[in-house]
Write a structure and sequence with these properties.
The chain has 131 residues and is an all-alpha fold. Among the domains are: 54 residues; 37 residues. The chain contains three helices and no strands. Helix 1 runs antiparallel to helix 2 and helix 2 crosses helix 3. The radius of gyration is 40 Å and the shape is elongated. This is Stage III sporulation protein AF. Keywords: Coiled coil. It comes from Waltera intestinalis.
Length: 131
Amino acid sequence: MQWLYHVIGQVGIFLICAQTLIHFRPRESYEKYLKLLLSVMLLIQLLQPLLTVLGGDEIAGTGVQAAEFAEEIRTVLEQAAVQTEQTEDEIQAVTDTAAEVTEETEPPDASDPVKIRVEIPEIEETEIKIR
C-alpha cells in the first residue's frame, strides 16, 4: 500500500508543476500544445504503476535483461581494450624493426665513388632497306 501513496504523491507534485508551467507559459498560443504534452505525461505516470501490478514479471524481467546487456557491453569493451593493446604492441614492433633497418642501411656520402654496372646486350646486324 506504501507504493500507492508514493504514486499519488508523485502525481500530485507533477500536477502542481504542470499547472505552474501552464500559468507561466510564454505565449497563449502554446497552451493547447502544453496541455496535450502534460496530459500524456500524466497518463504515463498513472499507467506505469498499473502496468507494474498487472504485468510485474515482464517488467521485473527488464532489470535482468538490462544487467545481461551491461555485462555484454563490459565484455565487448574488455575485448576491445585487449585488441587495442595488441595492436599497439604490433605497431611498436614494426616501428622498432623499421628503425633497425634504417640504421643498418646508411645512405652513401656524396664524396664516395659509386660503382655502377651496366650490361648492354649485343645488337645483331640486320639489313635495313630504305625506300
